[in-house]
Amino acid sequence: MAKVLTKQKKDKDCLEVLRQLLHYDRTHKYRGRSKKPQCILVGVDEVGRGCFAGPVVAAAVMLPEIDNRGEIAQALSELNDSKLLTAVQRERLSLIIHEIAFCAIGQASPAEINEINILQASLLAMRRALEKLTPAIGDELPVLVLVDGNKAIRDIDHIQTTVIQGDSTSASIAAASVVAKVYRDALMTDLGQSFPEYSWHQNKGYGSRTHREALKKLGMTCHHRKLFCRKHISADGDNGDINDGADIIEGGDIEGGEFEDYMEDLLEAAPFN
């Protein structure tokens, strides 16, 4: 009986979080006392900013109208910041979001990150996701883009609002964070099959102990972010030298998801210069 009551309370708490996320979106979609939407709302978020390897990935999501007491709300009851969810929860939610919403993915490669820095690469990935979503948006209403973080996306025609900690504030941004996270995790797991020594299937490209040790021993692959790796491996204080371009491979501490959550939270708390 106690377990049943605990589950019921947890489900109720999740629904309350979802209602708050949806309420934030509605305050932007509906103005004043209007019962008709004043804009089309799109949430955008990115993942993989603090990684040693792999692209930075962004998702743009346009959710349908969701009744707090409806079936869609029940299906999305666990929706929240993707870092607060388990992998199983994220994958389940991603399937539902893809079924009920319009979604698009954008990426910026490690080479682009090296060239233009991680902030600009993140914004570029967001812009690419929005561009892919554009055909589904239509032109009946103006578009308002809710962007996670404190930096606006350059060179887009839509109105946009930046939302600090948006993935725990807006349902649209939270949905985008889940879609982007699930996509990138699967991508890094797939890439890791060709480079098993770096344990990307576990750390998803973040700088776990296993990943750092493999970098020092084997050098960088074509999927590594050269400048980021050199900077952080050198900061370890141990022999920080890692192989550079001439040796690029083609083709116990904080580990896996814990390190990933730590890095994402650290970067979210520290605004870009």
Short description:
The protein has helices spanning 2-29, 71-75, 87-100, 110-116, 118-137, 171-192, 200-203, 209-218, 226-234, 256-269; strands spanning 40-47, 56-62, 102-108, 143-148, 159-163.
Secondary-structure blueprint:
Layout: H1 2-29, E1 40-47, E2 56-62, H2 71-75, H3 87-100, E3 102-108, H4 110-116, H5 118-137, E4 143-148, E5 159-163, H6 171-192, H7 200-203, H8 209-218, H9 226-234, H10 256-269
Parallel strand pairs: 1-4, 4-5
Antiparallel strand pairs: 1-2, 2-3
Helix pairs in contact: 3-6, 4-5
Total count of helical runs of at least 4 residues: 10
Secondary structural class: alpha/beta
Secondary structure: helix percent: 40-55%
Tell me the β content: 5-15%
Can you give the mean pLDDT?
86
The best one-word shape is globular
Strand order of the largest sheet: 3-2-1-4-5
Run of helices and strands: HEEHHEHHEEHHHHH
CATH topology of the largest domain: Nucleotidyltransferase, domain 5
Instruction: Report the top-level CATH class of the largest domain.
Output: Alpha Beta
Taking the sheet with the most strands, its summary is: 5 strands, mixed
Radius of gyration: 20 Å
| Intertermini distance | 53 Å
Ranges with pLDDT <50 over ≥5 residues?
A: 1-8, 244-259, 265-273
Query: What would you say the CATH architecture of the largest domain is?
Result: 2-Layer Sandwich
Q: How many discrete domains?
A: 2
Per DSSP E runs of 2 or more residues, the count of β-strands stands at: 5
CATH superfamily grouping of the largest domain: Ribonuclease H-like superfamily/Ribonuclease H
